[in-house]
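Limitations

Structures in this collection are predictions, not experimental determinations, and the ligand pose is part of the prediction. Treat each record accordingly. The example that follows, with zinc ion as the small molecule, is included so readers can see exactly what is and is not provided: the inputs are given verbatim, and the output is the predicted complex.
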Amino acid sequence: MKAAVVTAPGDWAVLDVADPVPGPGEVVVEVERCGICGTDLHVVDGDAGSLAYPVIPGHEFSAHVVALGAGVTHPALGTFVVVDPMVFCGHCVQCRSGWTNLCVTGGGLGTTADGAFARYVKVQANQCEPVPESVPAEWAPLTEPLSCVLHALDRIGPVLGTDTLVIGAGPAGLMLTRMLSLGGARVDVVERRPERLQSAPAFGADRTATSTDQLDRERGWGLVVDATGNAAAIQEGLSLVRRAGTFAVFGVSHAAAKVEISPYDIFKRELTIVGSNSVRHSFGRALRALAGGRVPGDKLLDEPVPLGEIATALRRTRDGSGLKATVLPGTA
Ligand SMILES: [Zn+2]
Ligand SMILES: [Zn+2]
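Predicted complex:
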């Protein structure tokens, strides 16, 4: 099969590789569409922590089940599914306490195991969710990024009536804005590229700006959420949290990025800093939110490109032009 393979940090190509074969409890799925996000760029660049190369990136995908491993009865052959990409052992102290996203030996499809920038991918059968007919097929790859957003909201807790600032209006920032506003927050969005702010009101943004100087909010915001992973944006965002407020780290930074934190300031302002890492018991809920029309998927998706043109889609994701880029791995 054809796959976009990262052979070493910074080095990738579309290559012919062996088709995957399902083991016990696994299925092989034929990928229909796969979204691209910042994490894929970190895998390509080699700054996502210690990963083993070569690896095929891609973790936001929809697919049809084409082969069943031993003992698999569900999902049936031919089922159209989305796949929770988390990889975890199930028996470490984190997994046994329900934190499978923080498994001590865990990872994910597209990072520590081969992902979906490929025609076929091997996945755990019990991590497949059949896509209901009420979800437009082209929206299905949004399930994974939306499930990360729902996990962030689980981590943050109730937001009813909270003045909130979302930093970044890419696809993740817009989905965060939507879910925070559905949760009752009043959401301002800051994004330095003005063209990205245009659809923010349709996602529930109260106000939008290209700089926080343009947004006066009395003594800052009760909740500030970073959806950029940019260290300078995070540094500024921390200073904008109101006393007793919360800062949530949602965007994925370079593994080596640093910001300055003053312990005295955390003490004095009684700040809460919340991390949110991937997907935890939020995948099925995200799919149901999409099925319920909670997210205007059509406003998030660029025209998909064939696998042979994935370089264009990666570049658009890197420079922030367009929104959610997607590839069609079955077309050359
Ligand atoms: Zn992603
Ligand atoms: Zn584990």
